[in-house]
Amino acid sequence: MQTCEPRETDRTDGSHGRARVVVLGAGPAGMAAALRLAEAGVRALVLDQARAPGGQIYRQLDQPQLDAAVTGKDYQRGRSLVDDFMSAAKRGEIDYRPGTRVWWIEALDDAQNDAHRLGVRGHDGISRELTAGRLILATGAMERGWPFPGWQLPGVMQAGAAQILMKQGALVTDTPPVLAGNGPLLYLLAWQYLNAGCPPRLILDTTPNLGLARTLRHPLRAWRARGYLAKGARMLAALRRAGVPIVRGVQSLAAEGNPRLTEVRYRLRGERDEHRLKTDWLLTHMGVVPEPQLPRGLGIEHRWHETQQAFVPDRRDDLSVCPGVWLAGDGGGIGGALNAEREGRLAALALLAELAASAPGGTLDRPALVRESAALRRRRRRDLSGRRLLEALFTPPLDWVERQPDETLICRCEAVSRAQLKVALAAGPAGPNQLKAFTRCGMGPCQGRLCGTHVSRLMASEQGRDMDEVGYYRIRPPLTSITLGELAQAPSDHLTTQSQ
Amino acid sequence: MLKRLESATPTPEVTITIDGVPYQVPSTLSVAAAVLLHQGVAGYRRHGAGGHRAPLCMMGVCHDCLITIDDAPNRQGCLVTVEQGMRVCRQLDDRGCEREGRDDADL
Predict the structure, then answer these.
(1) Strands (DSSP E) found in A199-318
(2) What mean pLDDT do residues A416-423 have?
């Protein structure tokens, strides 16, 4: 196992905050981890970027804006987890810090107690330093960037963004949107819009044909995925009954308009002519991928996952990624909310088992922890096996980015086009970092999160190398956007914690 | 533009200003959502390379929601929840608060 790039500690004073156990993120994985730790009497410091617990999936459940008739039961199911978490935080069993962002993280070459150092920007906008013992990363997923001509136009938005607007304030588009892309979330959003009385205008499905063929090769997985498949079938049937057209075999997509989207163009497989459609809104989805910043910032090794079409952090069976660090939930590979909850508990159990081993004779019963993990692990394996079928069904069109015309912006932040990348790639850069230096691609405020994988892929196909060999941008702090003023405050202050 | 569904749970509102104009918005919204609700996507912000941009992801990734909040520029509007009295200014170089700012400087 790697060591996550330990560094010499250069602490000169004791003015920083300390916490024995830190959980990063309060989605299903983070909440479940903190709750399981609390159950064993370990008070975790939970740092969360959001204003309330829930993560993306269970966002706003502390104050739901819509009832289950619109959102569906899967969303409301998170309510008990959010309630339990909030109650434990109120009782002081969890030290919950909403509105905080970790912008820098490193492993120290130090004693076990203070093994990591973090830069944390608090709700008050001030940065503080924190040293932490053991860490559970529950940093979740993000939507994959999906480039096509005009995707930078106002009026083009990701499906996840549309869902966030619904959860946050019952907000929907004022005219029927066109939905385009691939994957379960696209249909979930269409169904939720339908339930809200705003049926989408049209669904443009880009799923390649190979999906169904792959499914039929795995009857056992199909059986294990029957819950997901039945849910999908119900949504599709509802959309059909409502007369929402679903166009399959979409091969290319483009958005047009100035200053905002007014028209969508698309071409179907096997056809020469483009179809045109006037619309104010195009909501796109091309699957979700692990959010890379914190795991990469900590130096965790990643591997290319072919069916998820994403770089996925290398985890051991107990979800550990390096000494004293565990990674739970979608940040470690997409498995969905229920799996994330299970992984959060598994990571907490592994951490508790380590604490039990380091302090024998304490209150923690190690054999009981091991038994609990074994049972959870079995259920996780079964559920994930069904999920693999969804991955196969919804593999993104593999050559989408390579097929993009010259004008498509691959990097939105720095407005770097496919044409500019072609020229730079022809010069034979050694890797993504050099390409970034040549073109500024990936150098903007999103720090390459929307373009990184695409750049690696373009390079891999141009140079005939595989994705692991090409690799990904080197991620350095700040891991999130932070102002110079905040940076200047960083070393002199500390995060006050009562965690022990 | 966006609209709020009539079936929405009644939610307390706060008053914010967008480019100096006051608006009532549900207290659960992010600044980015509030601007999309009342101003729409066109003119959310101007991009350095030309053309307008509006939020893509609403979850802290894309940075196309950058906006000035209480005089602090380039805040991620999707990660900040509205608060009573908050002053929000879109980052468009030919209108809005930046002009107000210049007027203030002249005084």
Answers:
(1) 202-205, 246-247, 250-256, 263-268, 275-278, 282-286, 288-290, 302-305, 310-313
(2) 97
Q: Please report the ipTM that was assigned to this predicted complex.
A: 0.92
Sign of CA dihedral A418, A424, A426, A431: negative
Beta bridge partners of A286: A182
Q: Between the CA of residue A161 and those of A27, A137, A166, B31, B46, what are the distances in Å?
A: 17, 23, 9, 14, 20
Q: Which residue has the higher pLDDT, B104 or A175?
A: A175
pLDDT in tens, A436-492: 999 999 999 999 999 999 999 999 999 999 999 999 999 988 888 776 666 665 544
Which residues lie closer than 8 Å to A23 by C-beta, 6 or more apart? A30, A33, A34, A37, A44, A45, A46, A47, A135, A136, A138
DSSP string, A347-375: HHHHHHHHHHHHSTTSS--HHHHHHHHHH
Q: Answer whether B86 touches A (CB < 8 Å).
A: no
Task: Give chain B positions within 8 Å (CB) of A416.
Answer: none
Is B107 in CB contact (< 8 Å) with chain A?
Answer: no
Q: Considering CB atoms only, which of B41, B49, B52 is closest to A415?
A: B49
From the list B25, B52, B60, the residue facing A154 with the nearest CB is: B52
One-letter amino acid identity for A28? P
Chain B: nearest CA to A244, how far in angstroms?
20
Q: Please enumerate, as own/partner, the contacts of A307-311 that have beta carbons within 8 Å and a separation of 24 or more.
A: A307/A388, A307/A391, A307/A392, A307/A395, A308/A333, A308/A334, A308/A391, A309/A144, A309/A395, A309/A396, A309/A398, A309/A453, A310/A144, A310/A334, A310/A453, A311/A453, A311/A456, A311/A467, A311/A472
Residue A82: which of A117, A52, A106 has the closest Cα?
A52
Domains and CATH numbers, chain B: 13-95 (3.10.20.30)
Kindly identify which residue of chain B lies nearest to residue A64, measuring between CA atoms: B9
- Interface A-B, measured as beta-carbon pairs within 8 A, has a size of 151
Cβ separation A445–B63 shorter than 8 A:
yes
Q: CA-to-CA distance for A445 and A427, rounded, in angstroms?
A: 26
C-alpha count within 13 angstroms, C-beta hemisphere, residue A409: 17
